[in-house]
Specification:
- This protein is of the alpha+beta class and 268 residues long.
- It has two domains: 4-43; 66-261, Homing endonucleases (Endonuclease I-creI), CATH 3.10.28.
- 39% of the residues lie in helices and 24% in strands.
- It has helices spanning 4-15, 20-27, 31-39, 66-79, 104-117, 141-144, 162-170, 172-183, 214-227, 254-261; strands at residues 80-84, 93-100, 123-128, 131-138, 184-195, 198-211, 232-236, 246-251.
- The strands form two sheets. The chain has a four-stranded antiparallel sheet. Strands 5-6-8-7 form a four-stranded antiparallel sheet.
- One of its GO terms (molecular function) is endonuclease activity.
Amino acid sequence: MYLPHVRRSAVQLLDSGLSYSAVARRTGINRSTLREWFLHRDLIEKYQNLGSCVRCEPISRLPEPQIRYSYLLGLYLGDGCISHAGNREKGVWALRIICADAWPGLVQECVSTLEAVLPGHQIGTIAKPGCCEVVARWKHWPCYFPQHGPGPKHVRPIELAPWQRDIVDRHPQPLVRGLFHSDGCRVTNRVRRQVAGTWKHYEYPRYFFTNTSRDILDLMGDTLDRLGVEWRIRWKKPASDSHQPAGVISVAEKRSVALLDSFIGPKH
């Protein structure tokens, strides 16, 4: 099976005016196969994403669909990890996204996102106490998520690769949505105040995002700034000396909450 970039290169040679025989000698591909690709252009991308990696091609491309990848990036940075799947010598990696049982809609969206980014592959779910682990196995997950590395995310640098930054610049909302869906929430804040001797109760919606990685918090803050969302951050005292302090980004300003509601909304 020839990978898409091999097919594209061969057809480009044919388009340049070379004969089937000349391209066959240069590439080692049978003339009848070249003729079939040349006459039926849909075959060029036939096996796209069925094991091939757009980042590993001689001229690398961006994962598609980019909107779904941006959302998946947010899920991975929040509640995802990449680890070896089975025998390490086979070089297969498992991308695991942890989703709480309280939000079955998020589990379904996580599965559908993985199916869109990695079509033709089986996406599995594993029940855990209080949560569900969505799993996709593939050899090229580290290519798609170069942030992968040993140890927890908060003890190592988390920086977007230039090509990831290009995607996020085009599609910042899905990234923010994925981050809030993984490590965030939307709550109703209730306040009781005394006004002119009378106690009054106020309610207003608010978003929170909590993470122990300063790099991920910076990424969230920078992206919120680009979207025009007003936010604040405070640091939670760790439960013990062995734990890292967690940063909590909050969005409470009415216009900013309405903006987030327009593309995030409550979990379900």
